[in-house]
Amino acid sequence: MTRTPLRPLARILEARARGENPKVIERENIRQRHEDMKDRARARAEGRLLVLGLFFFCAFSVVGVRMGMLATSEAQEPLANAPGAAIAMQRANIVDREGRILATNLDTYSVYAQPPLMIDPVAAADQLVAIFPDLEKERLVKDFTGDRKFLWIKKRISPEQKQAVHDIGDPGILFGPREMRLYPNGRLAAHILGGSGFGREGVSAAEVIGVAGVEKQFDDYLRDPANGNKPLQLSLDLTIQAAVEQVLYGGMKIMNAKGASAVLMNAHTGEVVSAASLPSFDPNDRPRPPTSGFDPSDSPLFNRYVQGVYELGSVFKIFTAAQAVQLGLVNSNTIIDTSGPMRIGRFPIGEFNGKNYGKISVADVIVHSSNRGTGRLALQIGAKRQQEFLRALGMFEPTPFEIVEAKGGEPLKPRKWGELSTVTISYGHGLSTSPMHLAAGYAAIANGGHYVSPTILRKNGPQYGPRVMSDNAAQQAQTMLRRVVTDGTASFGDVAGYDVAGKTGTADKPKPRGGYYDDKVIATFATFFPAYDPKYVLIVTLDEPSIVAYGEKRRTAGWTAVPVAAELIGRIAPLLGLRPRLEPEAGAAITLTSN
């Protein structure tokens, strides 16, 4: 930059020669210099303002575009994003119908090792085996002294175990936070809850997932962060469940049964208030599935009331009688000839212990559990109409009960449904279903003829499905079933004040590889109570029961399942809020006289 002098000599000399004042030239140069300085300052300021304006324009443009994207996108739940915690651990609680905890979460720890950081691997292995006896010292030493950089020691530990491991003091043994699933009631309702395990795992977190029962059925709901504070409420009543399991276990032991199941269902809402399968397990320490053997019922994981698909025997006879009444073929007083012989093709149809009841009413066919009487009713109904009726009762598909195991309870139907199948199915042979199927069928009789779907979720008010039988047919069936308890094969099932109604069923147990056992049965008692105003259905099934009574070995349901069901009803009816109806006492035979 060239600076112009304020008093240029040439101009000064020229101005003096003309007699002018040289200071005017100096002042003019100063003014010009100041003007140039102002112009440069203004240009510099305008440039800065332009850059600042462009900056604000870009910033507001970015904010505006982001706001537009948020306004037009679908809302999503924000996820916490912290280093090492990319696995979501939150899982909603499971509660019973009264809000009592069935499954919840517990903060705990895992323990792992980084062998390169360990100081004394052999000593650490010795102390770990002392804390966790199920570990193998040789395997630990091999892993600690080999080339491994990381290995899990235990996926979850108790606070006491954490302190003991901490006291080892080896810097190569570290802890990771965990959220484990806790079932505070232990074995109670184990087959309903199912259990859980770990999915994706990291050092700082692990994903808890359902592996069976409602934990797996509702896994998406329970893992949804939006439901973290909203528990899954079941229809189960924890108090009643505890009473049912206690009585059922005692009955199973007294009757020398291999296993047992019980389903208590509201006949109007379909809510399963209690469901038990024995033997059971602790979902806090769920056993591994069996890897050998042919009988799945040998495992405590086997859910008998949905996976136990068996021919349930004479409990099906009431469906045949109810359908015959529904079709107008008979009523409860119609006489049926149950005399023999009766043959379907080359197969004879006989009665239990070779009995012959002769000509009896339809009601007595049910009371005496006549095979021939029920078979002759079924022949009047016909195969096609029989199939339609049983299909309407849900006997051809797995039950819609909301646990994953229910999908495996596929009923077994005959390949060819001819006259023989029509007759045998009428008295409970040839069609295999589960106790949960039977509960839904008896609920239709108890509630006046409507199908209700068994559900494990809490409902409000009746949940009637399509009508499957007329109210008249249901009422006559109720009366017949009440007589079975007062006059028939279920005489041990009456409970004072509750007017129990029901039907017994004893069927030979099938072998896993085909055929039937000669000395093993499935004994079932299907009942509802109170008979004068049915509210609840109870299905009790015993697997291979056998007792000695009056000097004889007895396996039939009337001697085994019925007493257990009676004890159950006597225990749980008050817990359900049902008041007993007591018969008035007879008046004293006193005659008033005067002197």
UniProtKB/TrEMBL annotation:
Top-level taxon of origin: Bacteria
GO CC terms of this entry: plasma membrane
Penicillin-binding protein dimerisation domain boundaries: 89-223
Residue intervals passing through the bilayer: 49-69
Any GO molecular function: carboxypeptidase activity
EC number in record: 2.4.1.129
Ranges where the Penicillin-binding protein transpeptidase domain occurs: 261-555
GO biological process, any: cell wall organization
Subcellular location: Membrane
InterPro entries: Beta-lactam/transpept (IPR050515), Beta-lactam/transpept-like (IPR012338), PBP_dimer (IPR005311), PBP_dimer_sf (IPR036138), PCN-bd_Tpept (IPR001460)
UniProt keyword list: Carboxypeptidase, Glycosyltransferase, Hydrolase, Membrane, Protease, Transferase, Transmembrane, Transmembrane helix
Location of region: Disordered: 277-299
Protein name (record): Peptidoglycan synthase FtsI
Species in which this protein is naturally found: Ruegeria meonggei
